[in-house]
Amino acid sequence: MKSLQHTIKAIVRRGEESGYVAECVEIAVVTQGQTLDEVTRNLQEAVALHLEGEDLSALGLAANPTLVVTMEVEPRYA
After folding, report:
1. How far does Cα 73 stand from its chain's mean position?
2. pLDDT tens digits, 20-61
């Protein structure tokens, strides 16, 4: 039996025009916001809405998975 994931991974990167975009790796959730705080709130809400009423084990997820966010940043050179 395949083990269930306890985390949902998401990547936050700068948007092409402005603000930030967050995209989940395991589930089909993408959202955006003008600030890091806003994109984080929007991501939490979007994931909750996406998973509402779903059979988490059918998605390969354990009950009450944690959202793990990674941020992509451009390196700065001296």
Report:
1. 16
2. 999 999 999 999 999 999 999 999 999 999 999 999 999 999
Render pLDDT for 56-76 as a digit per residue (tens, 0 to 9).
999 999 999 999 999 988 888
Query: What's the burial of 12, exposed, middle or buried (CB within 10 Å: 0-12/13-18/19+)?
Result: buried
- The two three-digit tokens of residue 54, written as one number: 């779903």
Spatial contact of 9 and 24, defined as CB atoms under 8 Å apart:
yes
Q: Determine the residue type at 60.
A: G
Q: Catalogue all structural domains in the chain, each as residue range(s) with its CATH number.
A: 8-57 (3.30.160.250)
- Gap between the Cα atoms of 67 and 78, Å rounded: 34
Residues with Cβ within 8 Å of 36's Cβ and at least 6 positions away in sequence, in order, are: 12, 20, 71
Q: Give the confidence band of 1 by pLDDT, cuts at 50, 70, 90.
A: low
